[in-house]
Amino acid sequence: MRKQRVVVGLSGGVDSAVTAHLLKQQGHEVIGIFMKNWEDDDRAAGSDSDDPGYCTSNIDFVDAAAVADVIGIEIEHVNFAAEYKDRVFAEFLREYQAGRTPNPDILCNAEIKFKAFLEHAMRLGAEKIATGHYARVRQAPNTGLYELLKGLDPSKDQSYFLHRLNQAQLSKTLFPIGELQKTQVRQIAQDIGLPNAKKKDSTGICFIGERPFREFLNRYIAKEPGPIRDAKGRKLGEHQGLSFYTLGQRQGLGIGGIKAKGAQKGGGDHAPWFVARKDMQTNTLWIVQGHDHPWLQSSSLQAQDASWTSGTAPTTLDVAAKTRYRQSDAPCQVQDANMQGFSLHFAQPQWAVTPGQSAVLYDGDICLGGGVIASAHAGE
């Protein structure tokens, strides 16, 4: 590969650190950028500044700066908090208030990391940007189009979160660790003496940190209590507001110990309860007993707000799809695919398909794109 000026998003984590090291090793001119996406004074639930559960960007920046020092590259601190609040957080709240369950990581990648950050990098004279995502990009020899591929470590593949990237973004992006296993990344970090070699991977959304999710949302969305009912319409309790629950949720329902006679398959009297439906019109939370209850199974879905990596909707009918990140690819047929949306019909019913989450399509290792789940058809 020709030597280029590459701007790397340094988060303070081990993946982006090894990304920067590998590029420097290849002879590129590497510049590190630390993105601040959330204002610390806007901290969740009014917590104290020394709360270890809150992921302060200050700590991460110190780690990123230490990494840059060891690797021998410059690092710049850039504040994208205003863009994040406008483009990601506002949409995140709108979706929750509508009773859906959005994925802010997908929106953050599309709007911040591969838009605001990419634009900033280009102003610095970068030819490419790079991040520590477990994914790959290649240019197809027959079409010249850029393809987004799964990372080679199946347990870490992050193509699901990147499916909204377009040709312009993919053409400017490098994912150096997409070819590696996570264990190899950790070993490289240790071998070259990176100070964050053993740093724990971040989990969740940074503006929430490790705190209870409902506690965070409570600061922005008003509670609207209503009935919790089972499949027979019996009232089993009261919910705190439909925005605070997601389909398939098992914990935090506040109905511990309640039994239902004649529980569905996967059940028995002591089978766990799951959120199955949210009725915004009547403000009712519907729950069912047993993981395999028919209300939790969907044979088809409708998606909207589609985005295709090639720039056009796929013409192939037989694909595979993920309706949530930690899920195996499910064989399905895609129909009526266009730039607005598509429908999927699955060979086997899918569990707890959730409006607001993304349905992402694959042809083998190639990520074709996807859309936001609008509705799902469940068995009765």
Structural summary, described in words:
The protein is of the alpha/beta class and 380 residues long. The protein folds into three domains: 5-213, HUPs (Rossmann fold, 3-Layer(aba) Sandwich), CATH 3.40.50; 223-292, Adenine nucleotide alpha hydrolases-like domains (SH3 type barrels, Roll), CATH 2.30.30.280; 295-378, Translation factors (Elongation Factor Tu (Ef-tu), domain 3, Beta Barrel), CATH 2.40.30. The chain is built from seven helices and 17 strands. Helix 1 (14-25) crosses helix 6. The termini are far apart. The model is unreliable at 44-53 and 261-267 (pLDDT under 50).
Backbone shape: globular
CATH topology grouping of the largest domain? Rossmann fold
Q: Kindly provide the radius of gyration, computed on alpha-carbon positions and rounded to a whole number of angstroms.
A: 22 Å
CATH class (first level) name of the largest domain: Alpha Beta
The percent of residues in helical segments reads 10-25%
> How is the largest sheet built, in terms of strand order?
12-15-14-13-16-17
How many strands? 17
Strand-residue proportion:
25-35%
SSE-based structural type: alpha/beta
Mean pLDDT: 90
Total of helices: 7
Q: What is the assigned CATH homologous superfamily of the largest domain?
A: HUPs
Spans where pLDDT lies below 50 across 5 or more residues: 44-53, 261-267
Q: How can the largest sheet be summarized?
A: 6 strands, antiparallel, barrel
Number of separate structural domains? 3
Order of helices and strands: EHEHEHHEEEHEHHEEEEEEEEEE
Assign the CATH architecture of the largest domain: 3-Layer(aba) Sandwich
Query: How far apart are the termini?
Result: 56 Å
